[in-house]
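Intended use. Records like the one below are meant for learning the mapping from a protein sequence to its folded structure. Do not use them to infer anything beyond what is encoded.
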Amino acid sequence: MMTGEYDVRLVILSILVAVFASYTALDLAGRLVSAYERKAYGWLVGGALAMGTGIWSMHFVAMLAFSLPIRLGYDITITFFSWLMAVMASGLALFVIGQNTLSWGRLLAAGLMMGIAICGMHYTGMAAMRMQPGIDYDPLLFGASALIAFIASMAAMWICFTLRNVHSFSGSLQKLGAALVMGLAIAGMHYTGMAAAHFSADAICLAASDLDSTWLAVLIAVATFALLGITLVVSVLDQRLESRTSQLVHSLSEANAKLLHRSMHDPLTNLPNRMLLEDRIKQSIYVATREHSKFALVYMDLDGFKAVNDNLGHQVGDALLKEVSQLVADSIRSSDTIARVGGDEFVLLINDLKNEQAVISVCSKVLSVIQHIRGIGPHRFGISASMGIAICPDDGVEPSRLLAHADTAMYHVKSSGKNGYQFFQEQMNSDFSEEFQIQTELREAISTDVLELYYQPKLSTDEQQLVGAEALLRWNRSSKGQISPARFIPIAEKFGLIFDLDQWVLEHACKSIRHWLDHGLKVPPISINLSALRLRQKDLVEQVEHCLQHYQLDPAYLVFEITETAEMQDILQAIEVLARLNLMGIHVALDDFGTGYSSLTHLKLLPMQQLKIDRSFISDLTSKPGQAEIVESIINLAHALQLKVVAEGVETEEQLAHLQKVRCDEVQGFLLSKPLPEERFVQLLRQYSAG
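Structure written out for the chain above:
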């Protein structure tokens, strides 16, 4: 019987290959768990190839470390099949440890199958020597090698499964120690199998070659180290990329969630706003209709709030609103809703109303807690509330009708002495309401041309140069003085005057631009607000085109500002209308971004060139935690979509400095200029033209 010898250097090299292959397997186990499903299959295949090649390389280097008194060699085809078995065994192992759980039954079955595959690899590799006569194996050592392969396979899979989610430095040391144990186990199986082999004294190797086994072993080992090293590097880079992508997705999701929350809640009190309230009213109407139940809407206005706000300042007024919001929220059931719908106006939604006494109890309790407010901080004062009640379905089954009836009832309480509540009654509609009076006067104001346009400049953030202006409608109501657009524009929409009002603004803005140009002034683009209803008007584009032609204006002098609520109602129609305006040469800006339903998909689809950040974001820019990050995210998002960004409501130097820092394009606000009447804006245009 021939006795073989081992090259110690190659034996050590084979063990190092086994250890490196084991460490790679441990790292790949973690990638399989953390990778997305489609990518996980790629790592399974690639990992099986890399890990299988590493195990086979250890086996083949160990074979080359073995020598007999005769020339040896290895059949390429049979050697290929031994490599294939190693890859299959590795694929099985990675598949098992990539599962969510690893039961003892699955571990035993997989260990048996992997052990058989590894034994197959080893003894197929031995067969590649094509010895004649064949190799005789010691049954005891043969069985021991198979047992070692089975136990080593189970241990390797259990270790990989246990350490697959460990990514710390101490975890890396644990993996290194485990790899050493696994590598020695694999090497132990191989050399036990080699010890089981007996070679006949007259045996010859039919696959013998003249290749230098030492250099061949080194070449294979180096190639294997390179393959495993590349696999590890790719794994680390992929993990870092996936981690950064995950962080970015998480950050965007958080930002979008914050934007969505802000669009549905009042920024001061964090109560639901009108948009969320209307949605909940619709849900309550659905439930009431289905279950034949009732609910109540209570419209509440604070008595004496204006005096507190005017005399003690906005900070005290804001603190009072927060205090009232908290007290009322604590006074109602969690299934009910309190929303802030205006400066000092709130609406309570009382669900599952059993009888009128139930809503009376709620109103009495709310009035009591408000009357117990004795002031804010060092300031002593008292307030009360006026509340109007509308019942669904008795007083209507539409949100707008219910709110209008509750509002009407509340005004009756106001006119009757305040500090109380009253149910809506049909005869209240016969009274001459303030809204009806406003719309009558507004209709006359449009026809008699007594409205005015003020212009608020927009400046470049860095150079503070005039780059545009927003046309703002003003109405000096003869009987009551100046009336806020926030008051009369909703009334115009309600009574069908908004089309005439928008057309008045467009006509007068174009007329003024023409006049300025004729007097040699340099005019920047003028922004005009476009209402939600006007955006859905079929002949809007034709009316705009006619106005431009009448005054012989380049469309580039106009910018239309639309609100998020406007274009979200009918996205397809909005895209069509805005695209036609763009083709004319008119730019479009998305106004009050963040106060409506902020959809990144809609933002990408809508043909627009500017995005205006709502003043509620800017007011808290330097004082509220996280606000600066939200604003910066909005700016980065807009720039990624090739949109210019305008920040409105800039009132302090600190706000301006931060906006300059985060590369906001344009700014607008009281710090730079209040809205100017036309004669003062013309003076600014003269300076702009001279410069």
